[in-house]
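Handout, section B. The chain below has 128 residues.
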Amino acid sequence: MELINAVGRRKTAVARVYMQEGKGNITINKKDIEIYFPLKTLQYIVKQPLNTLNAVSTYDIKVNLFGGGIKGQAEALRLAIARALVKLDPENKPKLKAEGFMTRDSREVERKKPGQPKARKKFQFSKR
């Protein structure tokens, strides 16, 4: 099997995934997944597409991950893994789409406007 690559994004995080057959090792920025994502919930988010297809110990995954916070990075990685699994076998798409793993969450942070303390918050109004 050849090397399959895919990209996933969320907020300002970008994940580039390189997947090939192996024993189920996930390496993120040359670190093991347990070291990079110490929280079990984030590890669960990353492995959701693999758990859906019962392919946890089938593929070795190498990831280049940058930008954003840890939650955004985990969700970007989930999207990238799902896209790589669909590239591998297009029959996987309906299962992953039903779980919501094929949809890119396009919400971004709204910019701060001049004359306001935040994006939408206003300074206190004084009539007199």
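Note. The first strand starts at residue 4 and ends at 10. Compare this with the example in section A.
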